[in-house]
Amino acid sequence: MATFDLLYQGLKQNATTFISTAADSQQMLYSTINPAQLGFLERLWFAYYSYLRDPVLATGIMSFLLHELVYFGRCLPWIAIDAMPYFRKWKLQPNKLPTAKQQWECTKAVLLVHFTVELPQIHAFYPLAASVGMKTYHLPFPSYLQMAYQIAIFFVIEDAWHYFGHRLFHYPYLYKRIHKLHHTYSAPFGLAAEYAHPIETLVLGAGTVCGPLAYCWWSGGDMHILTMYVWISLRLFQAIDSHSGYDFPWSLNKFFGLWSGADHHDYHHEKFIECYASSFRYLDWIFGTDKKFHAYRKLQAEQKRVAEQQAAKGGKAH
Ligand SMILES: [Zn+2]
Ligand SMILES: [Zn+2]
């Protein structure tokens, strides 16, 4: 009985300490915030940071989970599309479909990099973010407009970083030692977006992270980590979609001509040359690294037109 009493007292003590510490941390983190004035997402944010009490840990866990969920969540529809023959007519290299074994091997390799290379980086992100004044647990959230223009800036910065870094990785010395791994799949698929050597992940990934950090420093801390999360999610969508191997009539590049899309990056994997940028087409155009790409797509379109003409003639003859 005495043991039970001791245990009970101990648990009660722990619970009281936890509740009072949570209240302390709420007081510490959000002393000037009235939860009643917050929106739904902001209240979740408030509850999450108050519950975990440690902004470094809370931010690390959220960043890692977000990355995993968005990455694999975005890959799932592409795995399903690869399994459905209906979509084959929009596959850029229709005769090269990824096998289940390739997709599984790729998933394992990507997970290994996520846990060994990206997890420590994600955990190290908080002090970096704090050093440039980025808001993390802070509330309220920034406006949609502010988030939108900051993300547009990050897209431009990352694209330029990626263009020059990627071109550098195609120098034979670096290609053989580092970038060749990413080119394992000459007909890429969504999961292959982050299939790369750890050094490549580190160097090219810096374009995604350092742009916002530099911007935040330059703006005197006028940026929230939520903007960073939306940006990283969109950047993951961009990277996975451009490796998907599909160019649909409703793909973004059909409405926004500057957007690179799978059309652009699939060629880079097929031919191992040109189309070095990530999100946009203008740098490849300015530096003349898209000439063979345009000539090839033109030739393909011409061949398709001739084949369709012949098929129509054949149809009439019957
Ligand atoms: Zn490459
Ligand atoms: Zn690629």
UniProtKB/TrEMBL annotation:
Q: What is its main location?
A: membrane
Q: Which InterPro entries match?
A: Fatty_acid_hydroxylase, Sterol_Desaturase_Related
Query: What are the protein's UniProt keywords?
Result: Membrane, Transmembrane, Transmembrane helix
Return the GO cellular component terms, semicolon-separated. membrane
| Compartment(s) of residence | Membrane
Quick check: keyword Transmembrane helix in the entry? yes
Q: Which Pfam families match?
A: FA_hydroxylase
Gene Ontology BP terms: lipid biosynthetic process
Gene Ontology molecular-function annotations:
iron ion binding; oxidoreductase activity
Which residue range or ranges hold the Fatty acid hydroxylase domain? 152-289
Report what the protein is called.
Answer: Fatty acid hydroxylase superfamily-domain-containing protein
